[in-house]
UniProtKB/TrEMBL annotation:
InterPro entries linked to this entry: HATPase_C_sf, Sig_transdc_resp-reg_C-effctor, Tscrpt_reg_LuxR_C, WH-like_DNA-bd_sf
Source organism (scientific name): Cryobacterium arcticum
PROSITE patterns to which the protein is assigned, alphabetical: HTH_LUXR_1, HTH_LUXR_2
CDD domains for this protein: LuxR_C_like (cd06170)
Keywords associated with the record: DNA-binding, Transcription, Transcription regulation
This protein's name: Helix-turn-helix transcriptional regulator
Domain HTH luxR-type stretches: 361-423
GO molecular function, one term: DNA binding
Domain of life of the source: Bacteria
GO biological process assignments: regulation of DNA-templated transcription
Length: 423
């Protein structure tokens, strides 16, 4: 940071401390503010697999950050890993538009993308040094993100669970997109102005492109959202290895069935953080030489048991135990401590794998007019606006008006979700 000057370097370090100390929900905005005096940008996007619930963290122009996709970011990251080069002067499709970007990957695998970058007067004084400084700042921020996720604070778990609940809406949006593809296919195949050979070629290209996109989004979403239970437990063993290797503690692991249901990311992270915290709380007691850790999955819950061979004096109010209850509560789980004097203590945790469903408003309370009920029935049948207009003898604009009212009254965010609720 020498080229930036001592005063500016100190200012940057102070700002960096504020960024890494902020919550995961605020880290993108804080980092964007820190970088603007060095490299101006229209949007800042972070993509990290550490955060399963919200792998994207974004700040800046809503027209960009509301439209950027995991597929776009994954493409940039793969390109950087195979063709490392100067981060300046690059272009990529971000938010559906080909635009100038500058990007870095950290040692954690996390990606930072700045769109429409422009060196400020401060940064332009020594562009190469400025880019190097930003890369090092990003490395520190990415490490902080990884450490915060590993700690699994309650606020992060709550946000991840909310994001998991939102996934159904994303799937509904994807369904809408592919419904449009199918309509395009039908239009091509029914067209009388296109030869059979040309129609077949166009239809094949449309279908192939749609299938590639669908599979890429589906596979990426699944890999980010879930951890196989055996893999999650193996990561737990790695986390606890220092205690086994460098201490006198005997840690016994009872592994879960290898073919058990995959764990949502926030549940796997919470489970590991809870076990780490519990083991540390147990070994703080005098006379603890052995700890047994067991995971199981009943298809609906991650079941955790941690037992020691100590004096059996542990309780939910013991130091190190009380903070664990907040993590369990964030995921709607249960936590219990049983202690038997002279026989040891046992902690039992149950974490539900599925986010609770949001309460639905009964259809009788939607307050729909007869016309809206008719439109809703046709939407639920899969009819599009043109077919609904023809069936009800109204204009397509009137159909759009009714559908907008239905979305508002029913509490749906997409047409597919509206149809699902109606059915």
């Amino acid at each position: 940071m020498r080229s930036l000057g001592t005063a500016r370097s100190i200012e940057l370090l102070d700002a960096l401390h504020g960024v890494v100390a902020s919550s995961l929900l605020d880290i993108a905005g804080g980092f964007s503010d820190l970088l603007q005096p060095l490299i101006g940008h229209s949007a800042l996007v972070i993509f990290t697999e550490d955060c399963t619930g919200r792998p994207q963290k974004k700040a800046g122009n809503p027209a960009i950050i509301d439209k950027v996709t995991l597929v776009e970011l994954d493409t940039v990251r793969r390109w950087l890993s195979t063709e490392p080069s100067d981060p300046w002067g690059q272009r990529a499709v971000i938010g559906g538009v080909d635009r100038p970007i500058t990007a870095w990957t950290a040692s954690t695998g996390a990606l930072l993308v700045l769109t429409d970058p422009a060196l400020t007067m401060t940064g332009a004084a020594d562009p190469e040094s400025t880019l190097a400084v930003v890369g090092r700042l990003w490395q520190l921020v990415a490490t902080s993100i990884s450490q915060q996720v590993a700690a699994a604070p309650p606020a992060y778990l709550l946000d991840s669970r909310a994001a998991s609940a939102d996934r159904a809406k994303l799937i509904a949006d994807l369904t809408d997109a592919h419904s449009t593809t199918l309509e395009s296919l039908l239009a091509v195949l029914r067209s009388g102005s296109v030869s059979a050979e040309a129609a077949r070629q166009t239809a094949t290209e449309l279908a192939a492109s749609a299938m590639v996109t669908l599979r890429a989004v589906s596979d990426r979403d699944k890999s980010l959202a879930e951890e196989p239970v055996a893999q999650a437990f193996a990561r737990l063993r790695d986390d606890l290895r220092p205690l086994v290797r460098f201490g006198d503690l005997d840690v016994q692991f009872i592994e879960p069935p290898a073919n058990g249901r995959a764990l949502p990311g926030e549940v796997a992270q919470a489970g590991r953080a809870i076990v780490r915290g519990a083991v540390l709380a147990l070994v703080e007691q005098a006379g603890v030489n052995r700890v047994r850790v067991q995971w199981d999955c009943d298809g609906s819950n991650l079941l955790i048991q941690i037992r020691d061979d100590g004096a059996g004096t542990l309780s939910t109010d013991s130091p190190g135990v009380a903070p664990l209850t907040a993590r369990v509560a964030a995921l709607g789980g249960s936590f219990d401590v049983q202690a038997t004097a002279g026989w040891g203590s046992e902690l039992t945790v149950s974490l539900p794998l599925d986010a609770p469903l949001a309460p639905l408003t009964p259809a009788s309370e939607w307050g729909l007019s007869p016309r809206e009920q008719g439109v809703l029935a046709l939407v639920a049948s899969g009819a599009r606006n043109k077919a609904i207009a023809a069936e009800l003898v109204i204009s397509e604009n009137t159909v759009k008006f009714h559908v907008a009212n239905l979305l508002r009254k029913v509490g749906a965010s997409t047409r597919a979700e509206l149809a699902s609720l109606a059915r």
